[in-house]
Amino acid sequence: MEAENHLLKKRVNLFDGICIVAGAMIGSGIFIVSADIARTVGSPGWLLVVWLITGIITIIGAISYGELASMMPHVGGQYVYLKEAYHPLVGFLFGWTTFLVIQCGSIAAVAVAFAKFSGVLFPWISERNILAQIGPLKITSTILVAILMIAFLTWLNTRGIVTGKTVQNVFSSTKVIALLGFVLIGFVATKGINSLQINKEVFWHAYRLGENNQMIPLAGFALVAGVGTALVGSLFSADAWYNVTYISGEVINPKRNVPLSLVFGTLIVCLIYVLTNFVYIKILPLSGSATGTDALSRGIQFATDDRVATSAMSVVFGDYAAIIMAIFIMISTFGCNHGLILAGPRVYYAMARDGLFFRKVAEINRKGVPGFAIVVQGIWAILLCLSGTYSNLLDYVIFAVLLFFTLTILAIFILRVKKPDIPRPYKALGYPLIPAIYILTTATIMIILLIYKPNYTFPGLIIVLVGIPVFYLWRRYSGNPAAESEIDTGEEN
Predict the structure, then answer these.
(1) Pick the CATH number of 2-478 from 3.90.650.10, 3.30.460.40, 3.40.120.10, 1.20.1740.10
(2) Could you give the CA distance from residue 78 to residue 225 in angstroms, rounded to a whole number?
(3) 208 membership: H or E segment, kind and range
(4) What is the pTM of this model?
(5) Residue 355 CA to chain centroid, in angstroms?
(6) For 12-16, 165-169, 322-326, which range has the lowest pLDDT when averaged over its residues?
(7) Which of 115, 185, 345, 475 could be 145's S-S partner, Cβ–Cβ 3.0 to 4.6 Å?
(8) What value does the mean pLDDT take over residues 185-190?
């Protein structure tokens, strides 16, 4: 780690870290996924419960990750924690899935979301505008804009961590302020709208929409299963908060600032998410009709293209809502993708140092960042954009994400036994009870998803498992065995 400390530049402070957490979390999901959640649980009360559970799980996860981050403030973050607690294979499976699907698939999806909302302002950007076609491959203006966005942010992040964090700070701050403005509008500019009263009358009347939008009441275990499946969208919208652990080696006083960034960043975003959904049910009825002619008659469930935030703002601002929300979501997705592109390559860099990725990925450029790793990530994300498979891959992501969350929190228990003497400047709050509750909760959600959404969960599990033979083949033929454990090497603050 000595060489790494001389090459990587410690330029990220606490505010930067919070911005990286918040910026990576806030993308387009908060403006869209509540429609699907509303169709799954069918009541305003349970819609809020789903977001509350998401917030609690996320914040507990962040608090618990803080112990690991303070113990092992190394580049690669979660990859290092899993490698040290279990075996290099487990760390590799995390890195494999992160590169193949989680990070690059998210980058592709967010870039396409940016392009689609850009189309509201610039009609030339459209999925119907086909620029070129090679066999089944169609390059639309939407895909072109998404690719250009990824290419630009990839180049930008090769210019150094100071450039990267400055851009992230600007966009993260803008997103948080804009969302707070959205919440404020929802509280003060909605007099005369009686949607909240309508929603209060059916606040806890849970149901799901079946075929032909038939209302199927939910109670008992069916309700638990409904909430569990609804969490897929909200958890994905709150994902990527742990990205700040990937850049621990570039954080000033990482043993303090990485845990605090995790806690404050997730707390701010999760609180805003819950308030945003309260604004939704204050402005729009939850139940609606697919054939409704305006935002109020369509409700949250059938908001046009699931754009709940746009529907809510259209009630307040009329025809200008689509433009206002398109600009905001463009800012949000741009900042989100910048954070993802900034953080992800540090995982591949750490893997390459351990001989588990191409050696060149472990090189630091003259700007003090893993430039080649950033480029490799950008190329794969662009290929996913061109293939059109990124959306299918992302359906499989949440199970793999939950699996690695659970293993990472379990690592706290394992390392307390395996490495009791390692300094822990920050310890998991409420240990062992709160981390145990987290493990139990995420395990329950995974079981529910395996039962009720097998088409999504089993492919995700397969992607992870395919990495097992890849790991052993790579170690056998690369001629570069995994590096020694980092946990005992120490690192200056």
Answers:
(1) 1.20.1740.10
(2) 29
(3) strand 207-209
(4) 0.91
(5) 27
(6) 322-326
(7) 115
(8) 84
* Whole-number Cα distances in Å, 28 to 117, 233, 264, 330, 333: 10, 11, 21, 9, 6
3-state DSSP helix/strand/coil % of the chain, to nearest 5: 70, 5, 25
Closest residue by Cα to residue 237 from 324, 168, 306, 313: 306
Taking the domains of the chain in order of start, what are their residue ranges?
2-478
pLDDT reading at 489 higher than 50: no
The 10s digit of each residue's pLDDT in 44-67 is 999 999 999 999 999 999 999 999
Report yes or no: 487 and 422 within 8 Å, Cβ to Cβ: yes
Take residue 432 and report the two structure tokens written for it.
């062992």
Q: Give bridge partners of residue 251 from the DSSP assignment.
A: 12
All residues at 6 or more sequence positions from 459 whose CB lies less than 8 Å from its CB, including other chains:
395, 396
CB of 51 within 8 A of CB of 273?
A: yes
* Residue 420 near residue 71, CB atoms below 8 Å: no
Q: Kindly report the CA angle at 174 between 167 and 51, in degrees rounded to 5?
A: 115
How many angstroms separate the CA atoms of 68 and 64, rounded? 7
Q: What's the half-sphere exposure (Cβ side, CA atoms, 13 Å) at 382?
A: 16
